[in-house]
Amino acid sequence: MKSPTHKAILTTIALLAAPALSHAQATDTGTDDTPGKRSPFRPYTVLVPTTTYPFTISLDTISLTGPGVGLAWRFSHHLGISANYNNYKFNLDEVPLTDNLDYNISLHLRSIPLTLDLYPSRASTFHFRLGVARNGNQVTATSPASDDFIDLGNDGPFDSRDIGDIHATIKQASTNFYFSMAGDWFYIGRRHHIAIGGELGLMYGGKTTATLTRNGPPDPAIDASLKQEEALLRDNVSNINIWPVLKISLRYAF
Question: Which range of residues forms the domain containing residue 88?
């Protein structure tokens, strides 16, 4: 039995691919100038840009990489390039990043993918995106000092006031592999300038790193235990090497 997550992914793939394929079948062989009855590109010419090869501006309204904007240029029937900028920041309190400590975290999502776009059908907007992304995703977190006694790593308990505030930084590699598939779901208006579309894919960020610091008075025993705590945190986040890409966008082609 497929899990709800698998069903959601398969549904998104179907939404992306089905309108594109059906549109291709309906328009690839037609020559009528009626909108929806012809290919959007007239003579087949590879790598020769004309006014019929559209630029597209997109606004990512719902996105797992944060809201953002994008610009794409389809310079031939089957090839194009695109760039996006996504940025979002939010906070969460009392998140248990390790067994010993809860943190107040700030998650900053920031990415800039640059891709080569491959269009299987010249009559469709469905395409694959392959490229690299500048990954600025980062978690900064603080476990504030309190009146409690706490463990660090495998040691303790320690007086939290002797430790001070503990600050954590978690981030992935700055340059990521980027792959996705994207396309328009449906158009608004007869001329097909405005569309609602989506994108599904991933960024591969490599091994996630984590560091811990504190602002309490010097203490060799606490500092050694903090290194153990840092190793526990690093083990907990090291396997987070993929960031999902899921976007719903408003697009304007011209």
Answer: 4-253
Report the mean per-residue pLDDT for the chain: 82
Run of H or E residues at 10: helix 4-27
Which pLDDT score is estimated for 211?
Answer: 93
Cis-peptide into 217, omega within 30 deg: no
28: amino acid identity, one letter: D
Those residues whose C-beta lies under 8 Å from the C-beta of residue 51, and which sit 6 or more positions away, are: none
Question: Element (H or E) spanning 221, and its range?
Answer: helix 220-237
pLDDT of res. 39: 40
Query: Looking at the 3D structure of the chain, how many domains does it have?
Result: 1
What distances in angstroms separate CA 202 from CA 36, 135, 178, 242, one per listed residue? 32, 12, 6, 7
Where helices occur in 97-197 by DSSP H, the ranges are 160-163
Q: 30: which 2 tokens?
A: 């037609």
Residue type, 237: V
Cα 132 → chain centroid: 12
Question: Quick one: average pLDDT of 53-74?
Answer: 91
Phi, psi of 160, rounded to the nearest 5 degrees: -60, -30
34's CB contacts (< 8 A; 6+ apart) are: none
Q: Answer yes or no: is pLDDT of 170 > 60.
A: yes
Buried b (16+ CB within 10 A) or exposed e, 127-154: bbbebebebebebbbebebeeeebbbbe
> What residues are paired with 114 via a beta bridge?
83, 132
Q: Is 115:82 a contact under the CB 8 Å cutoff? A: yes
Q: Read off the CATH number of the domain in which 202 is found.
A: 2.40.160.170
pLDDT of residue 29: 41
